[in-house]
Amino acid sequence: MNQTAAVPAAAPTLSVPALSVRDLRKTYDGGPNKAGVQALKGVSLDVAPGDFFALLGPNGAGKSTLIGIVSSLVNLSAGSVSIFGIDLARQRDAAMRMIGLVPQELNFNMFEKPLDILVNYAGFYGVPREEAIRRAEVELKRAHLWEKATMMSRTLSGGMKRRLMIARAMMTQPRLLILDEPTAGVDIEIRRGMWKTLKEINAAGTTIILTTHYLEEAESLCRNLAIIDRGRIVEQGPMKALLAKLDVEGFLLDIDGHLPPSLPVIEGTTLMAADDHTLDIEMPRAMDLNRVFASLNEAGIRVRSMRTKSNRLEELFVRLTGENAQDSTVQTTPEQVA
């Protein structure tokens, strides 16, 4: 078996972005006073070759419109898009050969077998059948679906169907894989299994752009991110650098025994009881932890262990989108942009 079939055919050129978007605008007809709804208001971003990139934003922010334009499913109103240096407007077919898309919705024939779904999909893109069968075996094995290759797809579990969507998209050996909410509606165990598959695809050289509502997912998988809100990019850059902007840290403290009914007041901190044995604390990054521990000890609270809270990205997201996250669904596009 030729295992190299799953690796993108051409190595990306580091000087050329995998995706370059410049001043992208989209206005849908209709809306208030028939003036149209502006889904994108001058979006610009670059995604480097080999990156695992997160695109985050509240409902109605413009994520799906942006993905739709990049994948040539939605016409742009203004601006430009290039895929590995290929202009989407001038060389659409060449640009589309670089892209694999995994949409939110399951959109394959449930009465077909996974092997047939993959082989037929590759055939639509001109891949010879013999080569398509070879690629299908590679992708189904990577998706842990080879044992299900000849079963009816409707018998697969929800997580298996999601992995089948990813395997299908990889049949054209795309250099850029776009995933729109790929783990929506699956439980955490299945989600983590899909993370492993996506990490393997990225490690093999495929650039990945991920939209997700699971902030833990973005923090676990992605190295860079952009946050879009009401049609504009409000922040973008390396994940670690953006998280470092937070001036507040959160910790969970495991306590010996039970917490007292009344918690001590420690200036500059917020204390809450997560349960009888766990203390939830938020404090400035610059605050000395020893002072916190000393104050807790004086109150008769002994800390057995501590761990960092996993909601740092969520906190950054809420802080950047601010009050707009509350009402950003008011002016939605005809697609109910996610």
Automatic annotation (TrEMBL):
Designated name of the protein: ABC transporter ATP-binding protein
> Which key words tag this protein in UniProt?
ATP-binding, Nucleotide-binding, Transport
Reply yes or no: does the keyword Transmembrane helix apply.
Answer: no
Kindly give the Gene3D superfamilies that the UniProt entry links to this protein: P-loop containing nucleotide triphosphate hydrolases (3.40.50.300)
| Record-linked InterPro entries | AAA+_ATPase (IPR003593), ABC_transporter-like_ATP-bd (IPR003439), ABC_transporter-like_CS (IPR017871), ABC_transporter_ATP-binding (IPR050763), P-loop_NTPase (IPR027417)
Fetch the SUPFAM superfamilies from UniProt: P-loop containing nucleoside triphosphate hydrolases
Q: Name one Pfam family in it.
A: ABC_tran
Instruction: Give the source's domain of life in one word.
Output: Bacteria
List, for all copies, the residue spans of the domain called ABC transporter. 19-255
Name any one GO molecular function.
Answer: ATP binding
Which organism is the protein's source?
Answer: Lysobacter niastensis
